[in-house]
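stuck on this:

***
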Amino acid sequence: MADKPTSGKPSATAGPTKAQSPAGAAGEAAPSAQGDSQQQRVRVEVADKDSVCSYANFCRVTGTPEELILDFGLNAQPYGVPSEPVEVKQRIVLNYFTAKRTLQALSLSVQRHEQAFGVLETDVQKRVTGGGGTS
């Protein structure tokens, strides 16, 4: 699809995986300084009307030489060792190329969040006792 805006439908940007400006992250075409058509990003229309939204506070990452497997679930006991098994509700299988692009996108999003709201403390015990980071 061309870089023409769609009628309110979500879109993603395809193209070089350089750090994007906020406009580029929203899926808009980034004009190049020299008018290079090779540098323009192509918009990809995303149809998500049949997608399912789920919450997860647990993620297990495993893999094979060809694929990365992400299992997501809800851990009812986030402190200590759960007494019951965590039930996996979603599984996403990615090739390593897609996994690397996903890692870059997630990293950029977390950096922006931390710049706006402060550092995220991933150690639950430190968050509970107030030993650092934001809640």
Observations:
- Confidence is low (pLDDT under 50) at residues 1-11, 13-32.
